Amino acid sequence: MLRSRFHPLQTRPSVAVPGDPGPGDRRVSRWTRIRARPSVRVVTTELRPLVAADAAEHCRGEDELTVRWLTGGHGDLARTVAHFERLARNAAAGTGKRGFGVWRSGRLCGYIDFDPDVEVLEPGEVNLAYAVHPWARGQGVAVEAVRLVCEVLQTERVGRRAAIRVEPENTASVRVAEKAGFTHARTLVSPTEVRSDGSPVTHRVYLLDLWPASDVPAAQPGQRP
User: Does the keyword Metal-binding apply (predicted)?
Assistant: First the structure.
């Protein structure tokens, strides 16, 4: 069994990222979690901002489960690059949805984003959404990515609680939420999403407090209180 050696959220030395869709190269930080089995191997999970050069590998990582539970359809290269550009603009402004690629020992293996402006959630709740490429499933990648992005929220002081909305039939995502320390808080009936039979989609909402009650940060500009 792998033993975790976790380094609290740290800003690694900033690195220039060629191919960034913004004006010139940006300076970015990476969030890293290291899992080690002594004398055998070291496995790292990292969150990094996504750039245009990642789009093709991101699209290749989509399968029917990704489409069913997250995207609703297969992405193409142009729309994926445009999505990454929007995420980069939001990150630069410090508002709206922000996303990361998930890397496993140097290979892109998934995606995670957070959004403090999902209207069906309560003020202060920040929605998390994620997907893992088929080859990397069953290795704890999603759980580690969720834990890392929660530390991003704490470092950037975004929101009061992290929220994962999941359809009850998506048992793999339910396990991710539970293993990451989230608890089931309530069930929502989607006002917009419907199943193939016309019935509304329901989501369980799992929550994780990001702050002790005595240390809840004030809402940042552009965020709901």
Answer: no
